[in-house]
Design a protein that fits this description.
Layout: E1 15-20, H1 31-49, E2 53-60, H2 65-73, H3 86-103, E3 111-114, H4 119-132, H5 140-153
Parallel strand pairs: 1-2, 2-3
Helix pairs in contact: 2-3, 4-5
Length: 158
C-alpha cells in the first residue's frame, strides 16, 4: 500500500477476482447486511460495465457456534422440528437472505460457497497451520477465517 491514489491494474488483464466475506446465517437479514451487499453489488456492476471479467465470490458461513446455539433454542417444544438441525436452520436463513438480496435487486455472485461444503479442506489447512506454528500464540478464530476465505475464494471443489 502506497497511501496514494493509484490506477487500478488487475493482476491479469481484464480479469478481476472479488471475494466478499459472507454472513453467518442463523437469523433474518438486517440493514447492515443490506448495506454491505448493495455496496459490493454496485462495485460488481461497475467493474462489469468497464468490461472486466469479474469472478465475484461470496460465502455463507453455515457452520458456527452461533448457528448451533440458535438451532438448539429453536422450537423447544418440538424436538423433531427441522430447524433444530444446525444446517437446516442455516439453509433456511440462507434462502431468506437470497430472497432479500433479490428484493434489493442485487445480482447473484459468480460463485456462492458454503463452509460446510469444504470442511475437510478447512480442517486440513488449519491442522497444517497449527502444526507449523506450534510455538507461537495466535488468534485461532482469525486463522480459521483467513483459511476459509482462502479456500472459498480459490473455488476449491471437494
Amino acid at each position: 500500500m502506497t497511501e496514494q491514489k493509484e490506477v487500478f491494474k488487475p493482476n491479469e488483464p481484464n480479469k478481476v477476482g472479488m471475494y466478499v466475506s459472507g454472513i453467518t446465517r442463523y437469523d433474518y437479514s438486517h440493514i447492515g447486511h443490506a448495506r454491505a451487499f448493495v455496496t459490493f453489488d454496485i462495485l460488481y456492476r461497475y467493474l462489469k460495465e468497464l468490461d472486466y471479467e469479474v469472478a465475484y465470490t461470496w460465502n455463507f458461513t453455515d457452520v458456527d457456534d452461533k448457528i448451533i446455539c440458535r438451532a438448539s433454542e429453536s422450537k423447544d417444544n418440538e424436538p423433531n422440528h427441522p430447524l433444530r438441525d444446525p444446517l437446516n436452520l442455516s439453509n433456511h436463513y440462507c434462502q431468506e437472505f437470497l430472497w432479500d438480496m433479490d428484493d434489493l435487486q442485487c445480482l447473484l455472485p459468480t460463485f456462492q460457497q458454503r463452509v460446510s461444503d469444504h470442511m475437510d479442506q478447512i480442517l486440513d489447512m488449519v491442522t497444517k497451520v497449527r502444526f507449523s506454528l506450534l510455538v507461537m500464540s495466535f488468534d485461532w478464530e482469525l486463522v480459521m477465517e483467513i483459511t476459509c476465505a482462502f479456500l472459498l475464494h480459490s473455488h476449491v471443489v471437494v
